[in-house]
User: Which sequence fits this backbone?
């Protein structure tokens, strides 16, 4: 079957600050056979009408009745999957609308020859009270590392399996420009084969009572892994993350997602 790729992203009106750069980066891809789909889950159609005027892209309005932003996002991602299935695409390049991709992203991810493979970008994480810009890709600890952690930090004994913990990719791994088998990849730039997106849908994960915010990507990877599809991250494919527009400073001067305190209450 001829390779046919759908480059797609969910979005909403809060992404106005970076939408021009984002759409330009998709339009500038060098791969010869792909289409662009944007699914807007804003609460009214004003943003949809604006996006619909842009030539060269297809825009769908997601009229979901979900109230919470997390579930609106899940709805839009699953509409992308259905569109790709119905229109016979062999791959989806699933993107986040603040991730700026290199123009050869499709070619490089195809070379990886994996059913689920992503590029790499960073995000801000609060580590011991300090905001750090770290890779959005994690590996599980090895069994040796896991046992050493439990020996060194007694409170870690509550974790029974090494897959209960994960670490960010190291700088050495980031700089390697190699393909890495990972626990969770940078899912905002993910090339997904049809054999995966026909079987797996996005959802909302819960583990031992702990909710994962914006965790639809974690849910998707977990469900894919259950079916035998392991995630990979190609660190040669480095993306820019225009994320600052979604953050604000808390009372300690650290960056937190806008509305994060409300998410904790929901």
Assistant:
């Amino acid at each position: 079957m001829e390779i046919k790729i759908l480059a797609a992203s969910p979005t909403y009106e809060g992404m106005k600050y970076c939408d021009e750069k984002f759409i330009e980066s998709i339009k500038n891809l060098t791969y010869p056979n792909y289409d662009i789909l944007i699914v807007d889950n804003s609460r009214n159609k004003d943003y949809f009408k604006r996006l619909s005027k842009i030539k060269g892209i297809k825009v769908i309005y997601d009229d979901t009745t979900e109230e919470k932003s997390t579930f609106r996002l899940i709805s839009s991602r699953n509409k992308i999957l259905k569109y790709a299935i119905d229109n016979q695409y062999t791959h989806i390049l699933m993107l986040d609308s603040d991730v700026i991709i290199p123009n050869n992203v499709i070619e490089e991810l195809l070379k990886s020859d994996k059913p689920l493979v992503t590029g790499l970008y960073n995000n801000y994480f609060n580590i011991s009270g300090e905001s750090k810009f770290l890779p959005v890709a994690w590996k599980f600890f090895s069994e040796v590392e896991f046992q050493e952690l439990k020996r060194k930090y007694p409170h870690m004994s509550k974790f029974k399996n090494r897959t209960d913990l994960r670490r960010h990719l190291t700088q050495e791994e980031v700089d390697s420009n190699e393909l890495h088998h990972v626990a969770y990849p940078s899912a905002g730039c993910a090339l997904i084969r049809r054999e995966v997106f026909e079987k797996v849908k996005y959802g909302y994960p819960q583990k031992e009572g702990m909710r994962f915010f914006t965790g639809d990507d974690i849910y998707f990877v977990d469900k894919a892994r259950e079916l035998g599809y392991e995630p990979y991250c190609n660190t040669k494919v480095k993306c820019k993350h225009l994320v600052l527009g979604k953050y604000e400073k808390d009372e300690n001067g650290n960056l937190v997602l806008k509305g994060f305190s409300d998410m904790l209450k929901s």
About this structure: Confidence is low (pLDDT under 50) at residues 208-214, 260-266. The radius of gyration is 19 Å. The chain is about 30% helix and 30% strand. The first strand starts at residue 5 and ends at 11.
